[in-house]
């Protein structure tokens, strides 16, 4: 069949082959990007769904506005306020997961050949989505404090990108948290170079100790002229339920209007039933307890994984203990002649019945084959310890 030429730019995910092996019996997987289903507040969501149907079945089961179900937009506006962001319900649109917000940004902003700066490494689906629209992706390096703003500034000045895409808080896969100082630098650059900054923030609520610095969107409120250059994507996926498919985008009115138009042609609107359920859930006041629960459980797992990696792999691996999110991002050091290619290790690990994702596919440019991503989300502490011991053996 003759497919559209835009598909020529995109390979199916290199890690898909690996995922096929995850069904092997007895395997402990750190490969996925899923939250733990055992963490979903089923009772609260059931009650919310019932209330949505009892109170307004006509609204919850009918077609709805493309921008989103009004009661949910109000709840999301209130939710953002708890995170220091003042946004009118009309200043956000509800999207089918934040993934759709990324797609809408691609659709509205990227013409074939346009340059877009992303972090190296960054979210794989973003790389593929933006490439589908013909983006020429340029990769800005990341360290434990997030994207290196000095390097980012050089790249912006040189390439004059259409926009910059960042996951500043507990990035996938980097796990890194952009420091407050660098967040402020990003805002300065947005104004100085008149460049749109996309802040993808599905993990910001998932912190284990102290709260992270305010989002770039929140900080933009005190940097004159900067807010018009910020698009912010949020999601209920990682803290409440990815199956609900509730995300949102806050952006300048002009961009929001174009994105809404594109959404109309794509899915008309996000499931009204899911939106009404999410609205009821947020209104019920259960969210703070749910957040406290996921923070605690994932925090314990992250702790266990960090300790096990130290114990079992020692100086053969380097990493920064993540302060939130779902991922460890690590690098094989090759110390004492040990293996430094994560692709080879991934194969050996499968033979030892443990899985992770090699890091190379997460780079839009200059892949680092020594890197790997380990999720601590779905295995309990005991499984994490056993799995990392197996990884030690594989190495
Ligand atoms: N952005 C990032 C950085 C992610 O890791 C994910 C989920 N893996 C998404 C966006 C999309 O999430 P959702 O569509 O479920 O909101």
UniProtKB/TrEMBL annotation:
This is DNA-binding transcriptional MocR family regulator. The keyword Transferase applies. PANTHER family: AMINOTRANSFERASE, KYNURENINE_ALPHA-AMINOADIPATE AMINOTRANSFERASE, MITOCHONDRIAL. The keyword Manganese does not apply. Its cofactor is pyridoxal 5'-phosphate. Gene3D superfamilies: Aspartate Aminotransferase, domain 1, Type I PLP-dependent aspartate aminotransferase-like (Major domain). InterPro entries: Aminotransferase_I/II_large, Class-I_PLP-dep_aminotransf, PyrdxlP-dep_Trfase, PyrdxlP-dep_Trfase_major, PyrdxlP-dep_Trfase_small. The lineage of its organism: Bacteria, Pseudomonadati, Pseudomonadota, Betaproteobacteria, Burkholderiales. Keywords: Aminotransferase, DNA-binding, Pyridoxal phosphate, Transferase. It comes from the Bacteria.
């Amino acid at each position: 069949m003759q497919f559209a030429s835009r598909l020529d730019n995109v390979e199916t995910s290199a890690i898909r082959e690996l995922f096929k092996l995850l069904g092997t019996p007895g395997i402990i997987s750190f490969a996925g990007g899923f939250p733990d289903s055992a963490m979903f507040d089923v009772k609260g969501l059931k009650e919310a769904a019932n209330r949505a149907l009892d109170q307004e079945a006509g609204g919850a089961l009918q077609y709805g506005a493309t921008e989103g179900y009004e009661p949910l937009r109000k709840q999301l506006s209130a939710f953002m306020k708890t995170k220091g962001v003042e946004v009118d319900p009309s200043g956000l649109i509800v999207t089918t997961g934040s993934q759709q917000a990324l797609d809408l940004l691609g659709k509205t902003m990227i013409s074939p050949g346009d340059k877009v700066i992303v972090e190296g490494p960054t979210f794989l689906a973003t790389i593929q989505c933006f490439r589908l629209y013909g983006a020429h992706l340029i990769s800005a390096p990341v360290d434990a404090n997030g994207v290196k703003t000095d390097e980012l500034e050089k790249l912006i000045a040189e390439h004059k990108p259409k926009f910059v895409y960042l996951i500043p808080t507990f990035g996938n896969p980097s796990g890194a948290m952009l420091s407050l100082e660098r967040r402020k630098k990003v805002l300065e650059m947005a104004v100085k170079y008149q460049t749109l900054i996309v802040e993808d923030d599905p993990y910001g609520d998932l912190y284990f100790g102290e709260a992270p610095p305010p989002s770039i969107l929140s900080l933009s409120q005190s940097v004159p002229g900067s807010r018009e250059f910020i698009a912010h994507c949020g999601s209920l996926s990682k803290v409440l339920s990815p199956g609900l498919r509730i995300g949102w985008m806050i952006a300048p009115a002009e961009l929001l209007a174009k994105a809404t138009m594109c959404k109309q042609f794509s899915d008309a609107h996000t499931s009204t039933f899911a939106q009404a359920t999410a609205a009821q859930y947020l209104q019920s006041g259960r969210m703070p307890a749910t957040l406290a629960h996921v923070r605690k459980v994932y925090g314990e797992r992250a702790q266990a994984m960090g300790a096990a990696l130290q114990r079992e792999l020692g100086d053969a691996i380097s990493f920064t203990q993540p302060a939130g999110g779902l991922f460890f991002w690590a690098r094989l050091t090759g110390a004492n002649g040990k293996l430094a290619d994560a692709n080879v290790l991934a194969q050996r690990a499968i033979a030892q019945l443990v899985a992770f994702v090699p890091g190379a596919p997460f780079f839009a440019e200059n892949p680092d084959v020594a890197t790997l991503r380990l999720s601590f989300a779905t295995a309990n502490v005991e499984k994490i310890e056993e799995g990392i011991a197996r990884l030690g053996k594989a190495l």
